[in-house]
């Protein structure tokens, strides 16, 4: 018989593992762009991993506020209310799939910031804008590989090594 009412989302663990293990990145002040499913899947893991502050920015502020209300330590605003004080900016919107970038104010993307786009496999307008602004950039391929490894661990009890997989996929 199929059990119901149980599920795992490994996206957040995948993102945190990619940031900490693969990119060797320590984050504190996080800007999470978007309030849909992708953002919902990672916000808890970011907070559990030690983010001092997570701000959710979304076109519809009420969606960002509703998501922030579910996670102590998170807050919400619209894109116009952003200030340049984040060390990690994560694009969890679908804008890149439409070949667009979220409308960020000048200064949010800058030197010293890691701009992380969950979209992988191509250069997105968000990554292009971040690179032009002097930010370090990364796509979501590492998150994909790390969340797959976490899923495999949950199912099989064995955690595969991800570095060789990433090197192969990135052509290193």
Question: In short, what is this structure?
Answer:
The protein has 172 residues and is of the alpha/beta class. The protein has helices at 11-22, 37-48, 61-69, 125-132, 141-156, 163-170; strands at 29-33, 53-57, 74-77, 88-91, 114-117, 136-138. The protein starts with 10 loop residues before the first helix and ends with a helix.
The order of strands across the largest sheet is: 3-2-1-4-5-6
**What oligomeric assembly is this protein in?**
single chain
The largest pleated sheet is described as: 6 strands, parallel
Rounded to the nearest angstrom, the distance between the terminal CA atoms is 45 Å
Please provide the count of β strands: 6
Low-confidence stretches: none
| Structural Rg | 16 Å
Structural class: alpha/beta
Describe the structure.
The chain is globular, with a radius of gyration of 16 Å. 38% of the residues lie in helices and 15% in strands. The protein has helices at 11-22, 37-48, 61-69, 125-132, 141-156, 163-170, and strands at 29-33, 53-57, 74-77, 88-91, 114-117, 136-138. It is an alpha/beta fold. Strand 1 (29-33), helix 2 and strand 2 form a beta-alpha-beta unit. The chain is built from six helices and six strands. It has a six-stranded parallel sheet with strand order 3-2-1-4-5-6, sandwiched between helices.
Which key features would you list for this structure?
15% strand, 6 helices, six-stranded parallel sheet, 38% helix, 172 residues, alpha/beta
């Amino acid at each position: 018989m199929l059990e119901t009412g149980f599920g795992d989302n490994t996206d957040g663990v995948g993102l945190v593992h990619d940031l900490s293990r693969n990119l060797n990145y320590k984050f504190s002040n996080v800007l999470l762009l978007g309030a849909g499913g992708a953002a919902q899947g990672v916000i808890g893991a970011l907070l559990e991993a030690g983010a001092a502050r997570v701000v959710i920015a979304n076109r519809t502020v009420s969606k960002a506020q509703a998501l922030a209300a579910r996670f102590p330590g998170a807050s919400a605003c619209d894109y116009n209310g952003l200030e340049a004080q984040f060390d990690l900016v994560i694009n969890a919107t679908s804008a890149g799939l439409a070949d667009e970038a979220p409308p960020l104010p000048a200064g949010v993307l800058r030197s010293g910031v890691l701009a992380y786009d969950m979209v992988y496999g191509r250069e997105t307008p968000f990554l292009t804008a971040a690179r032009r602004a002097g930010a370090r950039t990364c796509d979501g391929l590492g998150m994909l590989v790390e969340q797959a490894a976490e899923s495999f661990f949950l199912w099989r009890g064995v955690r595969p090594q991800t570095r060789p997989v990433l090197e192969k996929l990135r052509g290193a």
